[in-house]
Design goal:
By secondary structure, the chain is of the alpha+beta class. The chain is built from ten helices and eleven strands. The strands form three sheets. Strands 1-2-3-4-9 form a five-stranded antiparallel sheet. A four-stranded antiparallel sheet has the order 5-6-7-8, with no helix packed on it. The chain has a two-stranded antiparallel ribbon with strand order 10-11.
Length: about 375
């Protein structure tokens, strides 16, 4: 055999091989770097100063939450005739600064706590499976060690300010979500001001005329042709000011007409239409997007947000997409002048599903 050249993989010692018992490594383990004490590790005054800094950041978070409440419940609840652009700017400033201080105070405070006060020693610990009671006790001991190293027991100022900041930080979000459906029309019953009962009732009532959205023109049954789709709202909605958008979001309807012979009508809904003219909520039952895409050829109604598809011939049954239940139908009839009117409100809640939602009619729920 010829002479092996320098660098040939077959040359002994050129590369390390798996299973080599020589005890050599291609790169020696350098070990952990030496620990460098921080100022707070050696100087108690520096540690105390860092503790006060972290506590100040937690207190700043509490102040930020309070600023949010001042803007939201104080400035934001002034009568409309006293509201001007200056007050709106003040409110937006309080809401923005309050949210920023509330979140950043906690975040930066925890970072500073871990950087300056928590132990920063590095160590290597082999991973072991927790298989018996002794190992479980060791795991509990490790958790206790972590608590001790965080110094949360030794530094009550940090602990108390952190608990206070974390306790009230979620309150602004809770207030906003609880107030999403809170309109100017207040009731003595809290369930009517908040919660799912607000979604059960709309402006539709017995004898309420169906009028065209935007124009407010009443609709005669003879004006609706087969294949048409008309955006409809209850009569009187467009004259409202303070609560129009809130009510429209629940009561808006799509009016369509098809050949009655193509409709599969449930026995209890035989009188809910007028010669093939039907009215359905246009609020998608998935996440509440407005539906307006009607295919006359297939009789399908399509939601543009997530492509939920409803079949008009099957009382708006979901035939495709993530929607969980059909669109609620508004019972309609005609009055003495030939105008389309509602027979009642929707008999089930409109919009997306939620955990308190009960699709049964009111008489069945009360039975």
């Amino acid at each position: 055999m010829g002479e092996q050249r320098h660098g040939d993989p077959g040359t002994p010692g050129t590369v390390e091989r798996a299973g080599d018992d020589s005890g050599k490594f291609a790169i020696e383990n350098p070990g952990l770097p030496p620990h460098r004490p921080r100022t707070t590790d050696e100087d108690p005054r520096a540690a105390k100063r860092a503790e006060r800094q972290v506590s100040f950041l937690f207190i700043l978070s509490i102040i930020g939450t309070l600023l949010f409440f001042v803007g939201y419940f104080g400035v934001g609840q002034l009568p409309l005739d006293e509201t001007n652009m200056d007050l709106i700017r003040v409110q937006n400033t309080l809401l923005g600064l309050g949210t920023a201080f509330a979140m950043l105070g906690i975040g930066i405070g925890i970072v500073q706590w871990s950087r300056a006060l928590m132990p920063d020693h590095e160590w290597v610990e082999e991973r072991e499976s927790v298989a018996n009671e002794e190992d479980r006790s060791d795991a509990v001991s490790i958790v206790n060690d972590v608590i001790d190293e965080s110094q949360i027991k030794r530094r009550p100022l940090l602990r108390n300010t952190l608990i206070g900041a974390l306790a009230i930080a979620p309150l602004p979000a809770i207030a906003i979500f609880r107030d999403l459906d809170n309109s100017g029309n207040q009731s003595d019953d809290p369930a009517q001001n908040f919660g799912p009962e607000r979604l059960r009732h709309t402006m539709w009532d017995t004898g309420t005329r169906l009028v065209r959205d935007v124009t407010g023109t009443p609709i005669r049954a003879s004006d609706v042709t087969i294949g048409s789709a008309i955006h409809v709202v209850p009569d009187g909605l467009l004259d409202m000011h303070d609560d129009m958008l809130n009510q429209k979001a629940k009561a808006v309807v799509l009016l369509m007409r098809m050949n009655p012979e193509d409709m599969n009508i449930s026995p209890e809904r035989e009188d809910w239409h007028v010669d093939g003219i039907v009215a359905y909520s246009k609020i998608c039952t998935h996440v509440g997007c407005p539906i307006a895409l009607y295919e006359q050829h297939t009789h399908h109604l399509l939601c543009p947000c997530h492509q939920s598809t409803y079949d008009l011939t099957q009382e708006m049954k979901v035939v495709f997409g993530p929607a969980s239940h059909p669109l609620p139908q508004l019972p309609i009839t005609v009055d003495n002048e030939g105008f389309l009117v509602a027979q009642s409100d929707f008999l089930e809640p409109v919009g997306p599903a939620y955990w308190e939602r009960d699709p049964r009619p009111a008489e069945e729920r009360e039975a």
